[in-house]
């Protein structure tokens, strides 16, 4: 491969890798903050048994917070798509950029929108980012559920 062959892919890598780093750091930081807040809430319960309602509230509220995190991270990608004009002239508004971003991040697909060839690798890189973010969320929620259930059964 020559540098001429690699050049068309350079811009999407240069934008995608920092976006991946930013979203992962943002996600991990937010999960850490949420974890600290939950630890304080659950520590107030002491060694006594927590109620089923509190258990459901903690898990449900935490799940809602992580959904908001994923939405913010998809929005970060959509801003880049919109500002870079990656969707071309027919799909260049903010709504289309967000639709494309959520579709790719969740690996759902099903949208008729496509990135311009120059930016084509950004989609799969965002999907990779989504997998990592969803993995972090799943690990966080799994640990939280284990903690809540252990307090519920004490």
Account of the 3D structure:
With 154 residues, the protein is an all-alpha fold. It is 76% helix and 0% strand. Helix 2 (52-84) crosses helix 3. The longest helix is centred in the first third of the chain and has 41 residues, at 3-43. The protein is elongated. The N and C termini lie far apart (63 Å). The model has no long low-confidence stretch (mean pLDDT 88).
Provide keyphrases for this structure.
single chain; mainly alpha; elongated
Gist?
The protein has 4 helices and no strands.
Structural class call reads mainly alpha
- Which regions are unreliable across 5 or more consecutive residues at pLDDT < 50? none
Using the alpha-carbon principal axes, give the shape.
elongated
Radius of gyration: 20 Å
Query: Which percent band covers the strand fraction?
Result: under 5%
Mean pLDDT: 88
Number of domains: 1
What's the tally of helices? 4
Number of strands: 0
Beginning-to-end CA distance, first to last residue: 63 Å
| SSE sequence, one letter per element | HHHH
Portion of residues within helices: over 70%
**Largest sheet: number of strands, sense, barrel closure:** none
Indicate the multimeric state. single chain
Outline the fold blueprint.
Elements: H1 3-43, H2 52-84, H3 94-105, H4 122-152
Helix pairs in contact: 1-2, 1-4, 2-3, 2-4
């Amino acid at each position: 491969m020559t540098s001429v062959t690699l050049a068309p892919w350079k811009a999407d890598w240069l934008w995608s890798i920092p976006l991946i780093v930013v979203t992962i750091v943002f996600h991990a930081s937010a999960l850490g903050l949420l974890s600290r807040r939950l630890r304080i809430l659950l520590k107030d319960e002491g060694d006594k048994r927590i109620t089923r309602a509190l258990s459901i509230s903690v898990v449900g509220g935490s799940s809602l917070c992580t959904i908001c995190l994923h939405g913010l991270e998809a929005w970060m990608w959509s801003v880049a798509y919109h500002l870079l004009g990656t969707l071309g002239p027919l799909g260049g508004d903010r709504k289309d950029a967000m639709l494309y971003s959520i579709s790719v991040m969740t690996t759902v697909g099903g949208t008729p929108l496509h990135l311009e060839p120059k930016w084509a690798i950004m989609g799969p890189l965002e999907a990779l980012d989504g997998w990592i973010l969803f993995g972090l969320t799943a690990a966080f929620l799994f640990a939280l559920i284990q903690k809540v259930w252990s307090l519920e059964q004490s």
